[in-house]
């Protein structure tokens, strides 16, 4: 049953009894399966029986639907959250817009919904990709939302400037007022929430959780960690035993040889040491890519890991029916679930959203904005799609770095989540420019977002979210989704006249090879060797320098555009 009109005037309280007796009244708007089919007849329920101030976003902003048919009870949970917020702030109409914001958003055609949507954004009652479809209709004022901003808004709107001092109460309120009905807490979970029952504590890790369901997910993750072998380093027998400089002097390690070469400036012939790489090359899988407007080559190696979780994807425009070629590097962790799902669905999700955006925008400015929104929505689809279709015990995740090349327009768009990096090299590879953003937990903005969402960042070998994940943005990672974002960094740029090439590689390569070293390494071989061989050599170089991760490199020759 859905009440559809929960508000203070329909809540009856008798404080003379112990415990206090609370009852819900006025079921005139209530709907269940029987009433929906037989009481309302052909007309069906409508918003006319509802009170607008307590309607959830999926009703208020979607024409005249009375509730979400897939999750009808989520309507009432939103209304409960609004009443809860009114009690905290001590006043009704908590989503009333300020006069200053009203002046900014004033538009006769859409102002009512714009006003309310603006206030929702102030409270951070949405996840940024959720609102992209409203971009044309309503003016959005910011998209930097998290639990910390939600709390600050409550404090700012409280006449006493106190807000709500109970952390678990704030957590419950935040879960009640989720934009997405599927993410809104259920009545059963709300009644069992830590605000009423006390925190749920994991006996193994000592961490506290707001619901039993969250504790169970955490315990399942710990169990999966105990049985995971993807991080076990294999015994290595193929590392070269001798490295020699251009001066013919031999060294036992790559590091010793490289330090000698640079100290003595023996880099006239090559900036890198030499070694026997055939044993490693023979262990690498054969790779092939479809033909695109730009020549490309790739190489990959599982390295010191037992399993390979890095993947590459190249989709030509003729194959996808689009006006761009797609290049992507994906780096999975905790299994192959997320990385495999992302590779299988990335091209289709991009095509759907980018074609829709290109159909509706014509100017350069609007086109750029539209493409960015489309890419964000495509990655949101990947993230949510994987979480919905994978098992509850699948805690895998994946980073993603992609490059879109529009040959007819001689321009590119890059986007990424995580720390697989893309670097553009110009002026004969003497200038390197990162065209992606490393999303690491210790970066100030990333750390602030994680901590304001209730998480923490700790040094555990490297900086990690909740002591577990070494990146702050990924696809998947269901056990950390409260703290880890899937919102990508995006860059638009035209084809540079002095462009040389782009290297997209997983962090296993960048862990031991700097941007400048990678550029020099590729450029030395660019006119002499095949791109696949160069990519393999770059991976081998990262391996012999000591990388302990999987490694994958994709090289795109920008000089080869036809």
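^ Assign residues to that structure.
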């Amino acid at each position: 049953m859905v009440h559809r009109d929960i508000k203070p005037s329909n809540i009856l309280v008798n404080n003379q009894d112990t415990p206090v007796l609370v009852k819900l009244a006025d079921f005139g708007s209530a709907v269940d399966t029987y009433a929906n089919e037989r009481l309302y007849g052909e007309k069906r329920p409508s918003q006319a029986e509802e009170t607008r101030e307590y309607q959830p976003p999926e009703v208020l902003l979607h024409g005249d639907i009375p509730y979400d048919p897939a999750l009808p009870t989520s309507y009432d949970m939103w209304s409960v959250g609004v009443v809860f917020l009114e009690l905290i702030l001590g006043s009704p109409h908590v989503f009333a817009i300020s006069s200053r914001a009203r002046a900014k958003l004033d538009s006769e055609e859409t102002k009512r919904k714009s006003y309310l949507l603006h206030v929702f954004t102030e409270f951070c009652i949405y996840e940024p990709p959720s609102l992209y479809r409203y971009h044309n209709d309503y003016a959005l004022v910011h998209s930097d939302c998290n639990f910390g901003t939600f709390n600050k808004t409550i404090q700012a709107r409280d006449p006493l400037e106190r807000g709500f001092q109970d952390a678990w109460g704030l957590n419950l309120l935040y879960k009640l007022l989720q934009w997405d009905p599927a993410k809104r807490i259920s009545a059963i979970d709300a009644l069992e929430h830590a605000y009423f029952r006390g925190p749920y504590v994991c006996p193994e890790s000592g961490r506290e959780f707001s619901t039993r369901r969250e504790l169970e997910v955490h315990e399942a993750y710990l169990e999966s960690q105990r049985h995971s072998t993807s991080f076990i380093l294999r015994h290595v027998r193929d590392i070269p035993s001798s490295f020699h400089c251009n001066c013919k002097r031999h060294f036992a390690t790559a590091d010793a040889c490289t330090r000698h070469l640079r100290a003595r400036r023996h880099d006239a012939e090559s900036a890198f040491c030499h070694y026997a790489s055939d044993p490693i090359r023979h262990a690498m899988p054969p790779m092939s890519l479809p033909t695109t407007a730009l020549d490309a080559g790739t190489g990959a190696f599982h390295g010191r890991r037992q399993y390979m979780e890095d993947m590459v994807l190249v989709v030509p425009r003729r194959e996808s029916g689009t006006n761009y070629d797609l290049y992507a590097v994906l780096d999975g962790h905790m299994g192959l679930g997320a990385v495999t799902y992302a590779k299988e669905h990335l091209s289709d999700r991009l095509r759907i959203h980018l074609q829709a955006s290109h159909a509706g925008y014509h100017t350069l400015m609007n086109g750029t904005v539209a493409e960015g929104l489309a890419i964000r929505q495509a990655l949101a689809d990947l993230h949510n799609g994987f979480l919905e279709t994978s098992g509850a015990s699948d805690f895998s995740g994946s980073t993603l770095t992609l490059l879109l090349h529009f040959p007819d327009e001689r321009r590119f768009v890059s986007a990424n989540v995580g720390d697989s990096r893309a670097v553009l090299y110009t002026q004969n590879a003497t200038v390197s420019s990162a065209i992606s953003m490393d999303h690491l937990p210790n970066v100030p903005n990333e750390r602030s977002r994680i901590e304001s969402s209730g998480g923490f960042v700790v040094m555990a070998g490297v900086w990690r979210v909740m002591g577990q994940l070494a990146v702050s943005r990924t696809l998947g990672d269901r056990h950390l989704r409260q703290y880890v974002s899937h919102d990508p960094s995006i860059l638009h740029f035209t084809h540079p006249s002095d462009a040389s090439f782009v290297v997209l590689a997983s962090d296993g390569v960048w862990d031991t090879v700097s941007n400048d070293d990678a550029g020099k390494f590729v450029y030395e071989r660019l006119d002499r060797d095949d791109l696949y061989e160069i990519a393999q050599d770059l991976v081998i170089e990262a391996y012999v320098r000591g990388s302990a991760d999987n490694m994958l490199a994709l090289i795109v020759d920008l000089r080869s555009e036809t």
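The chain has two domains: 8-197, 288-438+488-560.
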